[in-house]
Automatic annotation (TrEMBL):
This protein's name: WYL domain-containing protein
Residue ranges constituting the HTH deoR-type domain according to the UniProt record: 2-57
InterPro entries assigned to the protein according to its UniProt record, in alphabetical order: CBASS_pafABC_assoc_protein, DeoR_HTH, HTH_11, Tscrpt_reg_HTH_DeoR_CS, WCX_dom, WH-like_DNA-bd_sf, WH_DNA-bd_sf, WYL_dom
Pfam families: HTH_11, WCX, WYL
Residue ranges, annotated region (Disordered): 217-250
Domain of life, source organism: Bacteria
UniProt keyword Transcription regulation present: yes
Keywords from the UniProt entry: DNA-binding, Transcription, Transcription regulation
Basic and acidic residues composition bias: residue spans: 239-250
Length: 390
């Protein structure tokens, strides 16, 4: 609806100093001409919107201008309730502040909206964990979060392929990303050593202070290393690139660091500024697209029994390209795995329900593993096989 669109535009202008017509058109999925018509409608309604010309221009409101747009829709109330249940909120120790903020917001709502918010909070719970919790321990998440929030540099020790003990680097963390239960941060390496070298986490409390002392001792043992923090690990060395694969010339290229892999963290007093043009969500999408493009591909042609097809088609690390019915309850499929070893590990779990047609190297590997398994169970200490087969 146009009214909702106009309200959204006003909220964008209040939260951002200047917004271009192109940005608004992309966010609202409308044309730039429609944006200009909406701006004219707002001006006619008495809102003091005006345009700033030039290549970096856009639409804006006078400094300090605020509207009284506080209404919430049912979908927005439900969205806040989902946020309250997010595992990211608990990982960042923001559960209590989030509960308090939602309670204050509910108190400011009108009667019907307040009742609806209370109902949603009571009858909606989101559990993002699997049955087997794969949560990674990330003891330095608090310090990384503080560095991102306060725009402070960090001295980190980060294990890589070349240096299992980790290389020491000073980095500027630009943002945090939670991918389910795994935390990453985007950071640019600072090749200039900072002037101050305070104790790690000197202004952090509790466990952070204890970890900071341990971090400082760890740095003392590894000082002077200048090896690249991410080595050749593709999953932790994703660059910020344009859609055509070229490096973006406007801003530096952050690297992806996995918080759980940090061996030591020292929070520094020196500050940094994040470029205005850096968009964390867009950078992450591009990084993941680049990472997927660089994943190895191992094509396999195989026969799959019909009763095993439903399970095989849901394999996370397999991309089924084609599938066709074959004779006697089999299906012929072409699928992409990542490597021969990963294909071997997955296919062995299906026993006689899958037969590899090509490549022959994989078929021979499956045959060799099957022979080794048979020999293991036919050993002198094995139980007798009454059926004559396994």
């Amino acid at each position: 609806m146009r009214a909702d669109r106009l309200l959204y535009i006003l909220q964008c202008l209040q939260t951002q100093r200047l917004v271009s017509a192109r940005e608004l058109a992309a966010k609202l999925e409308i044309s730039e001409r429609t944006v200009h018509r909406d701006m004219e409608a707002l001006a006619q309604a008495g809102f003091p919107v005006y345009a700033e010309r030039g290549p970096r221009g856009g639409w804006m409101l006078p400094e300090g201008y605020r509207t009284r747009l506080t209404g919430l829709t049912s979908d927005e109330i439900a969205g806040l309730a989902v946020l309250q249940s997010s595992s990211a909120v608990s990982d960042l120790n923001l559960s209590v502040p989030t509960d308090n903020a939602i309670a204050k917001l509910a108190a400011a709502l009108a009667g019907p909206a307040r009742d609806e918010a209370a109902y949603v909070r009571k009858h909606l719970h989101v559990d993002g964990a699997g049955w087997h919790d794969a949560r990674e321990p990330a003891p330095y998440l608090g310090l990384v979060q503080q560095a991102v929030w306060e725009r402070r540099k960090m001295r980190i020790r980060y294990p890589s392929g070349e240096q299992a003990d980790g290389a020491v680097s000073v980095v500027m963390p630009w943002g945090l990303v939670a991918k389910r239960h795994t935390w990453y941060f985007a950071a640019v390496k600072d090749h200039r050593e900072p002037e101050e070298r305070p104790a790690a986490g000197s202004d952090a409390a509790g466990d952070d202070a204890v970890r900071a002392d341990a971090a400082k001792r760890a740095f003392a043992a590894t000082e002077g290393s200048e090896a690249d923090s991410t080595g050749k690990n593709a999953a932790n060395d994703v660059m910020n690139r344009d859609s055509d694969g070229r490096a973006s010339p406007e801003i530096a290229e952050p690297r992806t660091y996995r918080v759980s892999r940090l061996a030591a963290v020292e929070l520094l007093e020196e500050r940094f500024e994040v470029p205005d043009g850096f968009d964390l969500a867009l950078w992450w999408e591009r990084s993941m697209a680049q990472f997927r493009r660089e994943l190895p591909v191992y094509p396999v042609r195989l026969l799959v029994r019909e009763e095993a097809w439903a399970r095989f088609s849901r394999e996370i690390y397999v991309r089924v390209k084609t599938c066709a019915d074959a004779a006697d309850g089999w299906k012929t499929a072409d699928a992409d795995f990542h490597t021969l070893d990963s294909a071997l590990g997955i296919l062995l779990g299906y026993g006689a329900s899958i037969r590899v047609l090509s490549p022959r190297a994989l078929a021979r590997s499956v045959f060799s593993e099957a022979k080794a398994l048979l020999a293991l169970y036919e050993g002198p200490d094995s139980a007798p096989q009454d059926q004559g087969h396994i």
